[in-house]
Amino acid sequence: MKALRLYVPLVGLPLLGLIVVLHAGERLTAPPGLHGEWAVRAVSSTALPAGEPRSCLAAAAGGMLHRFSVAQSGPRIEVTLRNPEGEEWARSDARVGTGAASGAVLGTGNAACTGASRLTLVFTGPVPDSVRGTIAPSGCDDCPAVRFTAVRRRHPGMQD
Description:
The protein has 160 residues and is of the alpha+beta class. Helices cover 19% and strands 38% of the residues. The chain is built from two helices and eight strands, in the order H-E-H-E-E-E-E-E-E-E. It has helices spanning 2-25, 56-61, and strands at residues 36-43, 67-73, 76-82, 88-96, 100-107, 117-122, 130-137, 146-152. An eight-stranded antiparallel β-barrel has the order 1-2-3-4-5-6-7-8. A hairpin with a 3-residue loop joins strand 4 (88-96) and strand 5 (100-107). The longest helix is centred in the first third of the chain and has 24 residues, at 2-25. The protein is elongated and about 80 Å long.
C-alpha cells in the first residue's frame, strides 16, 4: 500500500500531464517546409520605370536572380538571393503563412542592389518542390514586379 501511494504521484501525475499535452498539441500543424537551395528557372522580362539603376528589382530583372537559399525556423524564414556566381546580393526576412511567404528585400554589403523591395513566394503543399515568386517595389502596388519560378535543388541523400 505504501508503494502505491508513492507510485501514483511519481508516475501517474507525469503520465496524466503527458496525455494532456499530447491532446492539446494534436490540433497544431507545422508550417510548410521551404528550407534548402532553390534554382530559378524563369524570370519575367519586365519593363522597369526609370529610377535607381541599382535597385534590387532592377538587379533581378537584369538576370542577377539565379538561385536562392532558405533557412527556416518555424514560420520564420531567411531568404538569401544569389547571383550566377553564387555570391550573395540580397536578403529577405519573411514569415510563412498558408500558401505564401513575404518579406522585405535588403541588399547586402557587397550587394548589386540597394533600395527597398518586397519578396513574395507562393507555393502549394507542406513541402513544395516549386514556388512562384515576385520582387516588387515596396509601397507601390501598381509598379511592375519581376516574376520568377524556382525549383528546389535536390541533393543526394536529402530528406524532408
